[in-house]
Amino acid sequence: MNIAVIIRQVPDTEAAVKPHPANQGAIVEDGVKFILNPYDEYAVEEALRITEKDGGEVVGVCIGPQRSETAIRMAMAMGMARAILISDAPAVEADLVTQGGILAAAIKGLSARLILCGREMIDTQNDAAAAVVAHRLGIPHVLAASKIEISGDKATVVRDIEGGSLEIETALPAAISCQKGLNEPRYPTLIAIKRAKNKEIKKMTLAELGLAAAQPKSRVTALRPLQARSAGVKVAGSPEEVAGKCAAWLSETAKVI
Amino acid sequence: MAGVLVWVETSEGKIKKITREAAGAGAKIAAKLGVPLGAALFNGRDLVPGLENLGFSKIYTAEGAIFEKYSSEAYAQAFAAAGEQFNADVFLTGATALGRDLSACLAARLDAALAIDVTEILYDARPLKVIRPVYSGKLLAEVELLGDKKVISLRPNVFPAAETPSAPPEVVPLSLENLAIRAEVRKAIKAAEGVMDVTEANIVISGGRGTGGPEGFKVIGELARTLGAAVGASRVAVDEGWIEYAHQVGQTGKVVSPVLYIACGISGSTQHFAGMGSSKFIIAVNTDPDAPIMEKADFAIVGDLFKVVPVLKEELGKRIRG
Lengths: 257, 322
Description:
The complex is a heterodimer.
Chain A: E1 3-7, E2 9-11, E3 34-36, H1 38-54, E4 58-63, H2 69-78, E5 82-86, H3 89-92, H4 96-108, E6 114-118, H5 129-137, E7 141-151, E8 154-161, E9 164-171, E10 174-178, H6 190-196, E11 201-204, E12 218-225, E13 233-236, H7 239-252
Parallel strand pairs in A: 1-4, 1-6, 4-5, 5-11, 6-10, 7-10
Antiparallel strand pairs in A: 2-3, 7-8, 8-9
Chain B: E1 4-7, E2 10-11, E3 14-15, H1 17-33, E4 37-42, E5 58-62, H2 72-86, E6 90-94, H3 97-110, E7 113-118, E8 120-122, E9 129-134, E10 139-145, E11 150-154, E12 170-173, E13 183-190, E14 203-207, H4 214-227, E15 230-233, H5 235-239, E16 260-264, H6 270-276, E17 281-286, E18 299-302, H7 305-321
Helix pairs in contact in B: 2-3, 4-7
């Protein structure tokens, strides 16, 4: 079966990100390394494993600026066959619900039986893509899968919740977001990285998808650094000494105990 | 007329704490806008008495086999139906696993503005604005919600629980037609008995590389039992197989916001802070005085967790027993 994988390019988790002084809601990109969203690796890997067993093609769909190509090439080096990149500004700047609609429009033409994405985009910390895309396509979804088993027209999915997990049976086609624990993503070989350079990235605009730029439903009006936590009390000494000081601090200063 | 509608999240026949927190935030939004506050409660008709004095004027209920287990499709349809009857324009859920799911489905259904894992609401802003962490918690985004309908999920343990003396709410059963679901929960798998989840715990005690193995987590587990705390872990500890993934706090694990976070043998990477940076108080126990976490902790103990934690357990046990 054909599988569509929603991917995204994000700043490396180690990168120091700073709000852009002029562009509202943007970060300073100079010196920031961009990578494939770490959770998307689980989605790509799962798609590859399923198609390696049952046949079919893995196609990536990405909304993002031109620089997103490096993330797409990374997924291609893992084994993704081809990809669609939507880079026009109204799409890149759209709110997450609108972007879900754009992704759905791009996926519609792919005759995909399964749509996979990462559990969360680590830049915006949004985790709604699978649910929104599924709703727009009129298909069911499951979020945060740590196990996916395909059998015929159905998939059995285990998804984590607080204090346990749920085993969900869903009809296909379906959209599923992928959680850590689902698989061990492969490392691309050098040959695969080379070959990935020749794979097709089809650039599409909103107009080509039959969409018009929509009024934003939400927008980021400011980005600011988290107030850095400053160092507090630091103690050293015998276990009895430090434990005593800590217990006193907890009950007198923090008033937690 | 408009309104604010809160999803009542339940777990094993009990109302989850986040519901009271969402009711608190909802009551504040409703008061500022001069609109009523309502609730949507699915498969929990007998829990209605527990929803008094939270400021709800109406509680919309849905019962039946299809609601016995969580279903994105059925719950979102019912939540939307309740919203339509209540004329709601603001919808609140917890940013829990299922609350995030439901809010996403509802926002797609209503073509609404969606804000996930919100840690602050700017109640006086028009249109309404919220604050939420982005970029691994390194930045905070101020988000303006422009849509007519706004769906917001709230980070647990951040908003004060509601204390809103109010008349008993009116219960309105929803009549829903054409409910069909294609993704169905077949089995709920519980974590091992007595294991508290980190996401909603008031106190979380975590272990990292310094625990050196499962034995380190025994020491941490004993302190956790004394304090009624949940046990968390860094990515290293999980990847090493010392503790299950369900305990992982951080970028690729869970986000926690407890009153007290005790990090034992954890250096404090960016990825770990993404999951616990909004804790109210942080205590660190580390042999390395220069570990990044020691510069961010409110109380940093330079020492070996195997020696310090058991003594701390005794000391705190004495204080708790009085």
